[in-house]
Amino acid sequence: MDDSLVLSVSALTRNLKSLVEGRFAFVRVAGEISNLSRPASGHLYFTLKDEQAQLKVVLFRMQRRYLAHDLQNGQEVLCAGRLSVYEPRGDYQLIADTVSFRGAGNLAQAFQTLKARLAAEGLFDAAVKRPLPFLPRHITLVTSPEGAALHDFIRIARRRFPGLHIAVYPVPVQGEQAAPAMITALTRIRRQIQTDVIVLCRGGGSTEDLWAFNDEALARAIREAAVPVVSAVGHEIDFTIADFAADLRAPTPSAAAELLVPEQAALVKAVALHHSRLLRLMTQRLDAWEARLRLFRQRLFTMPHPVERLQLEVARLKARMERSLGRLLAEHDHRLREVVQRLQRCDPRLALARQEQRLRLAHNRLWAAGRKTLVDKEQRLGRAAAVLQAVSPLATLSRGYAIARRLGGQRIIRSARETQPGDTLELLLAHGALQCRVEALRPVRDPGAA
Q1: Where are the domains of the chain?
Q2: Are the C-beta atoms of residues 233 and 219 closer than 8 Å to each other?
Q3: What are 403-448's pLDDT values in tens digits?
Q4: I want to staple 204 with a disulfide (CB 3.0 to 4.6 A). Which of 235, 239, 295, 364 is the partner?
Q5: Which of 95, 188, 208, 201 lies closest to 146, judged by CA?
Q6: What DSSP character marks residue 412?
Q7: How far is Cα 362 from Cα 372, in angstroms, rounded to an integer?
Q8: C-alpha dist (Å) from residue 34 to 57, 113, 236
Q9: Which homologous superfamily is 110-262 in?
Q10: DSSP string of 31-45?
Q11: Strand runs (DSSP E) across 180-259, as ranges?
Q12: What is the pTM of this model?
């Protein structure tokens, strides 16, 4: 084998670096932000992804200053820069010079759409949240048995309250089978396990890693649980649909243990403190009552006629009470009469009777007005008919006149000059019509001629 053809890892990586950086000295790449990291150096590291691939991107602190606003996971962005190969790890990445925003990514849009729809249904309302027990005796963790989140929760809970019973229901917390498995776990816990609270527990991860907790069916299963459900998913900056549907959202699994489990030592100390306070208050109260009893005994023995004075005092208080009760009863009786009078004035039956009377008057007026209008219309119709009858051609025909027109025509003949001998005419009479033939014309002198 020719050793000259064998490349070292460093040499191959340098060749690749030269090829990549020379071929892609400036590129523009669009995608969705994921796994965003903000270290103390001020640089931004994130993954730019689409449905089929992903690309690591770094935005240095100097270029970060020119962002319109801060980057967030799920945003759709357009990055412009150059490709580079990081030789120590053999990774290629995009060194971004500019980042422009294009809107929310597909996962972020799906998250916001589902969140808005479930919120409109009232699934996240504070009124449906169940109160958490002050001191749970049994906690069920729905989580992966291999995750560090489980061990963190158990360690902190047992440290705070050693006698607490914790059960673990193992489920996958990432991938396509995670959401159905958690739904099945919640259903079986409701039917088979007596527990005080359920905790959905998972450590941090990318948006894709936590996507199982954005399942709609899982959110509804959380609300259908028989006991309170706590969501302890991811880090403090991570939010899922399960966080909003749960009765309590804990920033981290460790925080969930601190929120759910009180410290046993603090409880013992508080009980002892309250016991001492109660004992001190009871002692002070008993001492005060004992002092008052001695004072009353002393006053009773020093009275010349204690029984007679007490009887007089009782009689005075009785008379005072009778006078007070008499005044009180008189005032209430006066108020009662006023209320009765107001109720009588506001009696709906009286108001109904007045409205009925007004309705009858209105009905009579309407009927009279309608009758008068009808008579007026009949009279006007009669006068119009008389006028029409006076000017009607039928009335003229009834007086012996006739209307002449050509047979089959409609135009009326007003002069003999409009006809010729031999023409066939139709004469319209008051009763029937005549068919005539013109034999001769006899001109008539025009009365208007000179």
Answers
A1: 9-104, 110-262, 266-308, 398-437
A2: no
A3: 888 887 778 888 888 888 888 888 888 788 888 988 888 866 655 5
A4: 235
A5: 201
A6: B
A7: 15
A8: 10, 19, 16
A9: Hypothetical protein af1403; domain 2 (3.40.50.10550)
A10: EEEEEEE--TTS-EE
A11: 197-202, 229-233, 248-249
A12: 0.47
